[in-house]
Amino acid sequence: MNQSNNLIEDLVDALRCMPGIGKKSARRIAYHLLERDREGARHLAGRLTAAMDQIGHCQQCRMLTEKTICDFCSQERRDPTLLCVVETPADVYAMNEAGYKGRFFVLMGHLSPLDGIGPEELGLDQLATLLDSGEVEEVILATNLTVEGETTAHFISEMVRARDIRTTRIAYGVPYGGELEYIDSSTLTHALNGRRDFT
Amino acid sequence: MRVEPHSCFVLHTRAYRETSLLIEIFSQLHGRVGLVGRGSRRRQSGQAALVQPFRRLSIAWSARGELGTLVSVDAEAAPVALTGAGLMAGFYVNELIMRLLHRDEAHTKLFDDYAEVMLQLAQVTSHEQALRLFEIRLLEAVGYGLILDHDIVTGTAVRPDELYQYISEQGPSLAAEHMPKGVCIHGSTLIELAVQSLQSEQSLREAKLLLRQELGRHLGDRPLASRSLYQAYLQQNRSLQKP
Ligand SMILES: [Zn+2]
């Protein structure tokens, strides 16, 4: 991170580390904060520092948390026999919003051998420990529907099956409110392959 | 220069900036090519679902400088239905292509071999033979074809029941009684490799050692990440079969 002798330019540059923020937006935000909301900006700076210093990963599920064991793992009302494997912390919130009531394991990525990301980088030894604890009765594979996500799901399903635990993969296909003729062929192929009895 | 739509496979993609992709493809006409897919990760682009490995696509791009710019991508076929070990093997093949082909060198025959091996990985349960034959064709394509039919010292035809030593980048000769050099391989395996049909466990094992030796010379020191993944996967699979 280079610093010029110009604090405003430094701020604009720093703001650009946020996703979706280009040079123009960064400048708009910088001026807005300086002209209209210094209090809010100070608060933000404090929160950012605290979060960056204190948030790590849950020792059980790898979710982002400032605690040793995150809330998802420690809440008693969550079903400990269900374990949902997802790629990112954002996926945890998405599954939670969708009404899922079990626990999670967060890979923080997916298998991508050509990028050097293997089982170790995804903490799969930690997942193995969790599975060996004997509490889990079903593992729900909710990795993304990409080739890498599917590869990850296949790899983990072998780990799970070796322990005689039920494995399921989230169903995928036609989005809610979707019209068939506008759906891309890859999605439709998967929807067709994953069809089920209709009663 | 605009490159008109034609058959290609995606070898690898990587996120680039916020909504774009860096895409490595294997093109039927131009070999390995690097492209930038501007906005390809935006949902509205409809490209994210298509720009995936293991599917025959029709891709057009405009070429300028080292990386081309993706212009259009359409499906030519349904995705190759790889599962389990087939997926791991598919990545292995892609990594070999990435490591051994230079960019922008046409390999039209190897492209057909690639399409074929992908179909085989989706169909057969044992991928070993399909992988070995592809490796041989790959070495041939990059100018390091193996000598499989004659003894390089005597010039005589390889005999099935003799044991040979295959010295890297040279070829087979009768194995020395003491301390043979290179990989030891039966004549029968060399002959089976030449006619592209490995018949026994022994042939498969010897062929694997030979090809690992020959590929290793061109891959350098960096290990193949997809190979370790493939092995880790098979390891788990094996532990499943234990009583
Ligand atoms: Zn947790």
TrEMBL record, chain A:
Keywords: DNA damage, DNA recombination, DNA repair, Metal-binding, Zinc, Zinc-finger. Transmembrane segments: none annotated. One of its GO terms (molecular function) is DNA binding. The keyword Zinc-finger applies. Pfam families: RecR_C, RecR_HhH, RecR_ZnF, Toprim_4. One of its GO terms (biological process) is DNA recombination. Coiled coil: none annotated. A zinc finger (C4-type) spans 58-73. PROSITE patterns: RECR, TOPRIM. Residues 81-175 form the Toprim domain. InterPro entries: DNA_Rcmb_RecR, Rcmb_RecR, Rcmb_RecR_Znf, TOPRIM_dom, TOPRIM_RecR. Gene3D superfamilies: 3.40.1360.10, 6.10.250.240, RecR Domain 1 (1.10.8.420). May play a role in DNA repair. It seems to be involved in an RecBC-independent recombinational process of DNA repair. It may act with RecF and RecO. Belongs to the RecR family. This is Recombination protein RecR. It comes from Methylohalomonas lacus. The gene is recR.
TrEMBL record, chain B:
Keywords: DNA damage, DNA recombination, DNA repair. GO terms for cellular component: bacterial nucleoid. GO terms for biological process: DNA recombination; double-strand break repair. InterPro entries: ARFGAP/RecO, DNA_rep/recomb_RecO_N, NA-bd_OB-fold, RecO, RecO_C. Residues 6-74 form the DNA replication/recombination mediator RecO N-terminal domain. Signal peptide: none annotated. It comes from the Bacteria. Involved in DNA repair and RecF pathway recombination. NCBIfam families: reco (TIGR00613). Belongs to the RecO family. This is DNA repair protein RecO. It comes from Methylohalomonas lacus.
